Fold:
Amino acid sequence: MNSRFGYMKIVYFLLSLSVTLILIVLLSSGFGKAPPFGKFVSPQHGFWQNAEPLNKKYSGDLNVQGVDRATHIYFDDRLVPHIFAQTESDAYFAQGYLHAKFRLWQMEFQTIAASGRLTEILGPGPDSAFLNNDRRMRRLGMVYGAKRSLTEMEADEESKKNLAAYTNGVNYYIEHLSESELPIEYKLLNYYPEKWSPYKTALLLKYLSYDLTGSESDIEHTNAKAHFTEEEYKLLYPIMNEASSPVIPKGTIFRAPPDSIAPPSTADSLYFHWKHADTVPNVVEPPAEKGKGSNNWVAGGSKTYSGRPILCNDPHLGLNLPSLWYEIQISTPDYSVYGASLPGAPAIIVGFNDFVAWGVTNAARDVLDYYQVTFNDNNKSEYWLNGEWKKAELTIEKYKMKDGSEFTDTVAYTEFGPVLYDNSYNGKGRVASNMNLAAKWTAHLPSNELKTFVELNKARNYEDYLKAIRYFSCPGQNFAFASKSGTIALWQQGKFPRKWNMQGDFIMPGADTSYRWQSFIPQSENPHIVNPERGFVSSANQVPADTSYPYYLGGDYDVYRGLQINRMLEIMSGVSPEDMQQMQNDNYNAFAENAVPFMIGNTKEILLTPDEKVFLDSLRDWNFRNENNFTAPTIFVTWFESLEEMIWKDEFDKQPGTSVLPESATLIELLKKDSAFSFIDDINTPEKESLADVITRAFKKAAIKLAAAKQEGRLTWSKFKDTGIRHLLRMEPLSRFHLNTGGGRNVINATQQFWGPSWKMIVHLTDTTEAYGIYPGGQNGNPGSYHYDEFVTNWAEGKYYKLWQMRGEESGDRRVKHVLKLSPPFN
Amino acid sequence: MRILVSILLTALLTFAFGLYLPWWSAALAPFVVALLIIQRPFHSFVSGFCGLLLLWLVLILVIDSANNGIMSRKVSMLLGLGPSPTVLIIINCVIGALVGGMGALTGSLLIKLKR
Structure:
């Protein structure tokens, strides 16, 4: 053999080998946002493995270390599991297993977000958006709060056992998960699930607190207070809108507290000091979409055709895929409960059992306040308190990036709480960079919210419900309740600080402990109502009680949904579940009813062009319903927005710092009451504008936008509003956009663009419970499954599914499509 | 004839490897086949290429039709290839075929070293 020829052979071989290996390496690594392509497209490993056959079978018989007795899971045609377990631990093991099997990626992602670790899987993000989000979470004390709550939960034997069983169920699934079965999001982002732990459940529950109580306007209110006079401030941000229909009816007599609390003697000079400007950059962030509202109500037996209560609930939350909710039935020999569970936590959050039903709405109380502290130096090791330097506890927070680099941050913990804002983090210019603001938040308190749900799941009567809700601290909720024995009730439950008038509405001085929250409102004095004469209870994030309630309520409350719900229930009788479905889907806009005639009455029609008149005429003929195919809701919303801009912008542009505009409900009340309201005038023009001038100008300005919308074919309400359900990673093809829905803000059917009724539930407490429900998603979190967004179309159309509370003896029922059995090993 | 047997064996062996090994078994199996069925390097490359093309195409078409195209449409859009999965499937199969072809070529060149 020619030696030179042999040498070439080696070269060819090595060349071919290198090309092959390089190809494999390149296709195994992700570049930037791209997934590792070879792995991703391999039909036996990558995304094709997530493409589930339409007729996929979920049946099986697993020998499982972790269950004590054989546990059966029956899936119905909508893939709702009906767990039949012999013990509660087995039931929670099965629930954990199911949550992981169908929702693993989302439950882990949400805990990663809650603990400020998004950068590990997503990198710092455009403009450091993910890093800033992570920093906000940690600096707000999310991890701190979750750890404290975990200690509290695990101090309770039963909770500890439940959490352990649930965790084992999740981990059993993760341990037996093959590479090819990984949810597609892991494959896209190229990472792997971690083991689950009770700490992660605690984080998830804190995330709910964050979602429902983690934002406030205290800083913006402080800026407004510094710019406007006291009279103006109180007009712009009233404690209670007069149109409100409180949760506890007006005129209810409340027990006076045995003592009173007063602001510290320095409050006038150090806290209120009206009209004193702090210099902060004038950044006006676009207002967040308001809509984290919810409705619940119970029509008592006197209102229903059957004489039995009907409980209704539709919590409004961000519309995401995979959905926040996972529908499930849990049955043990002691109880059988059905409803919506939260992937990542054991038990059912909103639901019913054989005796009672319950539902929640957000209390919307202000439980997050700020204290301004002064540090002695840049190390933030000491802060000034009660006339001396006190040691701050410093925690070092490390943020790992996807590329392996690291960012380090120091958070100082003070007497009041963690310092959220300081010179290293000012929330994108939300606060002046020389301000150190410590956050005091009820979510930092150790609490065991989980126990509330576990206990509600097996509650048999009002007393059980009352015992159960006492464990609930944050986020404060309105717990509506109904029992088969006919009791209806609603408690606003949470741990609420007892504040003096306007305490915490602004940044508080943090050099002095006299500004601390002094105590909490006694639980027994939380606003509540039991079997009222009017025959119904309801809540829709409105003010819980009128000003005769002897504790300061503060906060930021919705007005018109609650008003409309109460108006409707007031006159209803002989109610059926179908009536309640119609009511949850009701599109009547009580705010428009209040505003539109007034606005039309103040329009100088003579100044309108014929085209503009057409818009005005369709508004004149409007029945105030936000139906999907109407154009009037679009015209009204656009007009009102342009009116708000004209009234407020000139004054607020001059206010230093970030601002939050007064509520729409406040504006319309102010204009109706006083046509000479000083904000009407445009302070940037020499002439003095009248109300009619401004309203007409606003209309003409809106008409330009409306004409453009008409051109683009999106003048009808559903097209203009453009409701969509976004994948948690905001990936468009995994989302559902352009849904044809009515409703909107200030409407019972609160479907906005990306917010809306999440779990809609109606429970008729007849001997055999009659229940209906739906949520905008599907049971399987896998985008490659038919069940991923199975309910979305029906949800958008306002339809419901009849909920099947399966009995043990119905295992042979036609509705059972798959049976999964979890048996202990060697059984 | 030899090349046909080689293609079919490549498809079968890659499938079997794929059940237990990571995705790069798409190169390993054709490599092994090239050692077992000795051919000229170009023929080995073609066998690996076609074997993988065949296997991946069949797997994808079976999976996609059972899934009614739910996933392929979404992934195609995620990758910016439009709502029709045709282009995705072609690129997808060609990637597999290239890896398979290179694996087989390497195997064939290794055998040649010994002869």
